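Notes from hallway chat w/ T.B., transcribed later so I don't forget. T.B. wanted the structure written out for a chain they're using in a teaching module, and asked if we could keep both sequence and structure tokens in one place. Agreed to drop them here.
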Amino acid sequence: SSSSMLDGNGVFNLNFNYRDKILHIAALKGDKGKLAYLESLGFTLSSSMNVARYISSSAHNNTLPSLINKVTSIKQLLFLPTHSTHDDHYQFLIKNIRLIMCHLSISIDEDMQHTFSFFEKVQAKRGGLNILASQDAAFRCLIESFPRILLLSLNNHISPILDFLQNIGIPADHIPNIILAFPPILLWNVRLLQTRVLALNQVRQFFSFVFCIYRQ
């Protein structure tokens, strides 16, 4: 109950965890708590409102507990615990994103246009692209530009995509970089991803063949 959640001074009882506190605030505010929860993750008020509005407009399960579970699970799946060996990975990612922004500024592909927009929004923030090295900041940037990720099924969509990436030889600790370099890949289904990977392999084999002929 609300009374047992607070002590005599109106402060949260230490026996209650973060999730319980968020649910309590949601009950008090009467807005289903999504806005308060998103702000607690570091989203600005305007970003929280945009993401919450997007989530609420869908036909999916939109309860606050389901959102908390989805955010926690996605962060665990996509962003591994930071290790010092990962620093070089993020610097390599940031360097290549800068190259992409310089040399591929125009694209007729909708997914690439959305990705460029994502890069530009991150670049405009304080700290620029370097904030992608921060897992919490990278997650916020990802969701601000691609809120649909929060509507994806963990078991039926996200996990199969991540499993596929590992099965084609991408190490688990490199997958966050793949996602940040091209977020729309998470929105594809496995069949589409398989088709595009096959096409890339065929292009690679063709150019390898041409290169061999050229060398002769």
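Follow-up for T.B.: The first helix runs from residue 2 to 5. Might be a good example for the class.
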